[in-house]
């Protein structure tokens, strides 16, 4: 832990926004450097103009590639264009609009000229496409300009197809390859008009994202219960795209809701530093959330306090009795509550989780009598279940989740931090207990797991080898004193490659995955036999993985 983690940022920590924006327009990528080419991860293309990895040319090429991709897929309906509060999001949105307008794509931008959370964009796409068949050319899709919780100097650009959720690897692979071809051709083939012409184009329209989302919330959350129980809510947008949404939620639904900090600052000067002394809007981090945690611990009059990252696809829950909840703990509580209280859901619903999420969820699902579907990392794997209503809940350990409406219909197919934060207030209203109290009851029933993630050094070659492992490459038979019960390189829920390895025993497990941006691999591990056993699992996991990728 760094010495200044959890303390307010100093002037020396702040990004030079002028230099950042200048670099967006002035710096050209060196395509011989893999780090400066277009590359889509689990949440789109990300980078920084200061590192020549997120610049005007990148966005023009990516947008033209999306235009060509959607045409090839027979998508001719409107494209919802959303952005968050990162400094690079505004110029990237403008660049995208210039290309979209030049190509005659019908674009819908925010009617309030404000910011749009990722879940609001997903909800808008799904609402527009309701009743349209899979081959209907009038289907809508969307672009969300956001690097999520990343630091202020970063930018991000992601594509959501007509199903409303993150694009799959077939789509992102095609888009990235085509964008790099356009970059290599000096943007020959990219159509573009000036911003003023794009804004005035007949193809550019407006959409009230906020009203569409906020007014529909009672379809997914028991708003009446929260209001009638007079749950006192403190909502911290953390300088992100949910800033105007929380105030409207309180006002339109007559809730006792206080927007803790309505400030929008592209430097995020008000933030407390994360574990590595970086400004990062990670609402699952006790260091990034230190200000809100302190308010609650010092007696702020909130029954539930919440935080969101910059595009509001992640949630953070703070309770007076438990402080900031571990995301795995809250997911377990949310699942247990929802599957007991949502009587309108399909009887054959299953529980969805990523393979690096807590095994407490496995035990909760078993206690509910619900099948568990375990998928690789990436929210895209939950899209089919959320669309059908059978996978009524999908969640991942990084504080991202969504679930279907109270009648079982689809709400969002992307992560929805606003929804999960409001659920915490519903849980308090209906049960009379905080989510942290309810997690204590779950541990009394199922045991208390110890969970952690660590990083281990690895070369690019070693990371590639880890990503291509076969189960047969692992010859070990024991882990931390217990017989190994499974060696997985494919997710048991859908058979998809996990891009790494997961090893399980009766009371513990670990999963190892290569980092996409650093020379490390990540080891996720958990034990129901205590913290000392967890350390043993971590040490043996590292030794095991190192031996097979050497």
TrEMBL record:
**What CDD domains would the database entry show?**
PGM_like3 (cd05801)
Q: Which UniProt keywords apply?
A: Isomerase, Magnesium, Metal-binding, Phosphoprotein
User: Which residue ranges does the record assign to the Alpha-D-phosphohexomutase alpha/beta/alpha domain?
Assistant: 38-181, 212-322, 326-446
Q: Which InterPro entries match?
A: A-D-PHexomutase_a/b/a-I, A-D-PHexomutase_a/b/a-I/II/III, A-D-PHexomutase_a/b/a-II, A-D-PHexomutase_a/b/a-III, A-D-PHexomutase_C, A-D-PHexomutase_C_sf, A-D-PHexomutase_CS, PGM_a-D-Glc-sp
The prosthetic group or cofactor this protein requires is: Mg(2+)
**GO biological process per UniProt:** carbohydrate metabolic process; purine ribonucleoside salvage
GO molecular function terms listed in the Swiss-Prot or TrEMBL record: magnesium ion binding; phosphoglucomutase activity; phosphopentomutase activity
Q: Which SUPFAM superfamilies would you find in this protein's record?
A: Phosphoglucomutase, C-terminal domain (SSF55957), Phosphoglucomutase, first 3 domains (SSF53738)
List each copy of the Alpha-D-phosphohexomutase C-terminal domain by range: 488-541
Decide whether keyword Repeat is in the record: no
Q: What is its EC number?
A: 5.4.2.2
Per its UniProt entry, which superkingdom is the organism in? Answer: Bacteria
**What NCBIfam families does UniProt report for this protein, alphabetically?**
pgm
Spell out the family assignment given in the record's similarity comment.
Belongs to the phosphohexose mutase family.
- Name of this chain's protein: Phosphoglucomutase (Alpha-D-glucose-1,6-bisphosphate-dependent)
Organism equals: Sinomonas puerhi
């Amino acid at each position: 832990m760094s010495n200044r983690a959890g303390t307010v940022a100093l002037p020396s920590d702040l990004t030079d926004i002028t230099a950042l924006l200048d670099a967006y327009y002035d710096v050209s990528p060196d395509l011989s450097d893999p780090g400066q080419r277009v590359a889509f991860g689990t949440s789109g293309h990300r980078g920084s103009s200061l590192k020549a990895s997120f610049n005007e040319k990148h966005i023009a090429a990516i947008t033209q590639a999306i235009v060509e991709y959607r045409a090839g897929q027979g998508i001719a309906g409107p494209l919802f264009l959303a952005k968050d509060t990162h400094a690079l999001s505004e110029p990237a949105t403008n660049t995208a609009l210039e290309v979209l307008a030049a190509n005659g794509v019908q674009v819908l931008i925010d009617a309030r000229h404000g910011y749009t959370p990722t879940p609001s964009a997903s909800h808008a796409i799904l609402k527009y496409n309701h009743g349209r068949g899979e081959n209907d050319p009038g289907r809508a899709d969307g672009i969300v300009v956001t690097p999520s919780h990343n630091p202020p100097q970063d930018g991000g650009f992601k594509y959501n197809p007509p199903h409303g959720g993150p694009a799959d690897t077939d789509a992102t692979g095609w888009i990235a390859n085509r964008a790099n071809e356009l970059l290599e051709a000096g943007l020959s083939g990219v159509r573009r008009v000036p911003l003023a012409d794009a804004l005035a184009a007949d193809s550019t329209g407006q959409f009230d994202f906020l009203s569409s989302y906020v007014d529909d919330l009672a379809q997914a959350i028991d708003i009446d219960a929260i209001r009638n129980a007079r749950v006192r809510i403190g909502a911290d947008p953390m300088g992100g795209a949910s800033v105007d949404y929380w105030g409207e939620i309180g006002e339109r639904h007559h809730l006792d809701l206080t927007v803790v900090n309505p400030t929008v600052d592209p430097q995020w000067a008000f933030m407390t530093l994360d574990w590595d002394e970086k400004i990062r809007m990670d609402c699952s981090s006790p260091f990034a959330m230190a200000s809100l945690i302190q308010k609650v611990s010092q007696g702020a009059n909130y029954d539930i306090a919440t935080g969101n990252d910059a595009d509001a696809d992640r949630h953070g829950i703070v309770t007076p009795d438990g402080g900031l909840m571990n995301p795995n703990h809250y997911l377990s509580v949310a699942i247990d509550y929802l599957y007991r209280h949502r009587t309108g859901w399909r009887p054959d619903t299953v529980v969805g989780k990523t393979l690096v999420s807590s095994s407490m969820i496995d035990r909760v699902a078993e206690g509910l009598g619900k099948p568990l579907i375990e998928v690789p990392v990436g929210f895209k794997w939950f899209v089919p279940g959320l669309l059908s209503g059978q996978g009524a809940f999908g969640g991942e350990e990084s504080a991202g989740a969504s679930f279907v409406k109270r009648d079982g219909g689809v709400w969002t197919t992307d992560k929805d931090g606003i929804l999960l934060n409001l659920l915490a207030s519903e849980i308090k209203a209906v049960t009379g207990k905080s989510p942290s109290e309810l997690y204590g009851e779950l541990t009394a029933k199922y045991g208390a797991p110890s969970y952690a993630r660590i990083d281990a050094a690895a070369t690019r070659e070693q990371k590639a080898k880890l990503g291509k492992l076969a189960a047969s490459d692992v010859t070990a038979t024991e882990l931390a004193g217990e017989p190994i019960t499974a060696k997985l390189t494919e997710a048991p829920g859908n058979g998809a490659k996990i891009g790494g390895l997961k090893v399980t025993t009766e009371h513990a497990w670990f999963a190892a995955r290569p980092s996409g941006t650093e020379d490390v691999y990540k080891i996720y591990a958990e034990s129901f036999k205590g913290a000392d056993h967890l350390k043993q699992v971590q040490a043996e996991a590292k030794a095991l993985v190192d031996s097979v990728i050497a």
